[in-house]
């Protein structure tokens, strides 16, 4: 169950990062409110998952899902560049996450 909660926490991190971008520096009310709600939910789920998962593992997975997820949202939705170097960097993050998961 902790892994499911951690995954949801990571996905919420992607959601709040994207909504923060849409908030335009917190000048748009809807995206700003969503950002704060998603942040609180993400931290809460991370905290619950840390009851049974090691700190290093939980935090690494959470930030990794957020980083790679935000990277993909940037490319797929916001039209950010997908250079070879950026794709390699994302692949390295994913491989690190897999190693962390399998080592726990």
TrEMBL record:
InterPro entries named among the record's database cross-references: EmrE-like, Small_drug/metabolite_transptr, Small_multidrug_res
What molecular function terms (GO) are annotated for this protein? transmembrane transporter activity
Q: What are the annotated GO cellular component locations?
A: plasma membrane
- Where is this chain's protein located in or outside the cell? Cell membrane
Family that this chain belongs to: Belongs to the drug/metabolite transporter (DMT) superfamily. Small multidrug resistance (SMR) (TC 2.A.7.1) family. Gdx/SugE subfamily.
PANTHER family assigned? GUANIDINIUM EXPORTER, SMR FAMILY PROTON-DEPENDENT DRUG EFFLUX TRANSPORTER SUGE
What is the official name of this protein in its record?
Guanidinium exporter
Look up and give the organism this protein is from.
Answer: Candidatus Dactylopiibacterium carminicum
